[in-house]
Amino acid sequence: MSINTAHANNGVLIHAGEYILLHSDSVSMEFSGQDNDLFRGSKQGRVYLTSHRMIFNSKKPSDVMQSFSAPFVALSDVEIEQPVFGANYIKGKVRAQPNGNYVGEVKFKLYFKSGGAIEYGQALLRAAKTAQSNFHRGGLAGDDPPPYAPAGAWHEAPPPAYQPPPGYYGWLPQHDAFSGPAPNTVFISDNPPPYPGIRTSSTQYYYYPNCYQVARPFCFIPIPVIYP
């Protein structure tokens, strides 16, 4: 995970070859487990599910946390909560990436004000599980995820540059809470992702020497399986 590395010009900054799968414009996030001003208070913004990570962008220009990037390989203990009272939400833990502007691990809760928590959570769990299985050079349990690498040069991107190929992600859920990003709000770096995503071809972008695959734990709730 890295802080303030996934935003640009009031929009989201993604890697070359990274696709935006889901986007919700009305969410809030809360963090715990870190004594750091970056994580204090409830944060209002928008969330993206990409082919490689979960990204949160704040809507408040004065917030010290403008963006939160959580690669799938850094996530653990992800669960979907359905309280009797209050909105459904997703919770989990995410480990810091080296050079990611914080250290250690932080817990998060992601609330969807317009619904879609279960659908987003199901897609997140599936994508994260797939990325973990692609992490064939992934480290030992507890190892840091691949380090954050500066985005380098970046540019505004039209939708064809970040939309997934037609039919490839047929398992993605449909919900009124999900919409495409607003025009002129998606920017793409010239650099590829430094960590694996849900396509095995992404493994060319990372390398962990002298390590072997150990999947991080994920907690699944009994919800229907969606097949591609």
Automatic annotation (TrEMBL):
Residues 41-129 form the GRAM domain. Transmembrane segments: none annotated. InterPro entries: GRAM, PH-like_dom_sf, WBP2-like. This is WW domain-binding protein 2 isoform X5. It comes from Drosophila arizonae (Fruit fly).
